[in-house]
Design brief:
alpha+beta, Elongation Factor Tu (Ef-tu), domain 3, OB fold (Dihydrolipoamide Acetyltransferase, E2P), six-stranded antiparallel β-barrel, four-stranded antiparallel beta sheet, about 40% helix, rod-shaped
């Protein structure tokens, strides 16, 4: 019994001591672990912070289709660097080829019609017309001879008045037929009328213009790179029907990435602190150790609604921003078009006058 009275209080004291030790350790604040990638800090004595989005120095070029047609072939993939004029994709050309052949036939027919007029008169058509003239001339001589016989009679009553008039007018009609045959021969020998030639020449020019238009339209079915640059995104596949000039979803996004540009949004509350031509540094989100110095390009003087929101609870959705454009060389850094970066630019001090 005496042993129990000693052991039980001793165990209680030991438990109490262990509890106090556990509470003591629990109340201690654990050491703060080091931040592997700390957020960026302002690199200048007076800095203006902004949010920048990386873009191609040529701006993002949204490439669409000039006609509504099926995609026949795609020659590039995202990330490809291509030279100006290199084919990006091709549309089905069956309809355009049929139109081109039709225009070629029309042009050839117009040229043949024009050449036909230039070749007039045809040599084989002249002898028959000359023979008609001779035939009309012989008939006229015969008719005149018959009329002169009765016209020179000393006694006018030797022939009736009807016969006299008949021979007279038959000779006159023969004269007119001879003149008609001579005029037809003269017109034939003169060749084509100048006005007919001008009309035919105009028709040739019109047919040639239509042919050149069809050839140009056929070339437009192969969409080519507008400049030296990189394919940033491809949003179409072979066999898809693409609409004409529909850019809600561009078929290909293309741009020049040497160098890259970054478009920095400066809230309107800080615009007065911005200095034109100020230096700047852009930091990658998630790893501020990756950063690039910026070279000022220009600013867009018209303020626009803020598009890229940071989800800060104090941020105003209706804020307008001034956009500064800087350029930088990416080198081997993992920076790509469309990436958001934190940007600091050198600005006026808070107490400076405008």
């Amino acid at each position: 019994m005496r042993l129990k009275k000693i052991i039980l209080p001793l165990l209680a004291l030991i438990g109490l001591a262990l509890g106090l030790v556990a509470v003591f350790h629990a109340m201690q604040t654990p050491p703060t672990p080091p931040i592997p990638y700390p957020p960026p800090t302002a690199p200048y004595e007076h800095s203006v912070a902004g949010e920048g989005i990386v873009e191609a120095s040529s701006r993002d070029i949204l490439i669409g289709s000039p006609v509504t047609e099926i995609v026949d072939a795609i020659y590039v993939t995202p990330g490809d660097r291509v030279e100006k004029g290199a084919p990006l994709f091709k549309l089905d050309t069956s309809v355009a080829m049929a139109r081109l052949k039709e225009r070629e036939a029309s042009y050839e027919r117009a040229e043949q019609e024009y050449q036909k007029l230039l070749d007039l008169p045809r040599l084989e058509t002249v002898p028959p017309e000359r023979a008609k003239v001779k035939l009309a001339e012989a008939d006229y001589i015969n008719r005149m001879t018959q009329f002169e016989l009765v016209d020179k009679l000393e006694n006018p009553r030797a022939v009736s008045r009807d016969e006299y008039n008949q021979r007279k007018y038959e000779a006159l009609a023969a004269k007119y037929r001879l003149e008609e045959a001579e005029e037809v021969l003269s017109l034939l020998l003169a060749g084509s009328w100048i006005r007919d030639l001008e009309i035919a020449r105009a028709e040739v020019k019109e047919a040639k213009a239509q042919l050149e238009t069809a050839q140009s339209q056929l070339e437009e079915y192969t969409i080519k790179a507008p400049l030296d640059g990189m394919v940033l995104r491809v949003n179409t596949n072979v066999g898809e029907l693409v609409p004409a000039n529909e850019l809600n979803t561009p078929l290909i996004i293309f741009g020049c990435v040497d160098p890259l540009h970054i478009r920095v949004d400066i809230d309107e509350e800080d615009v007065w602190r911005v200095k034109c031509g100020a230096k700047g540094i852009a930091y990658m989100r998630g790893n501020s150790r990756i950063n690039v110095p910026l070279t000022y390009v220009r600013l867009d003087p018209y303020l626009v609604p803020k598009a890229n929101l940071t989800s800060d609870t104090t941020e105003k959705v209706d804020t307008r921003v001034l956009q500064l454009i800087y350029r930088f060389d990416r080198d081997d850094k993992p920076i790509f078009p469309g990436m958001l970066m934190d940007v600091y630019v050198e600005g006026r001090p808070n107490g400076a006058e405008q």
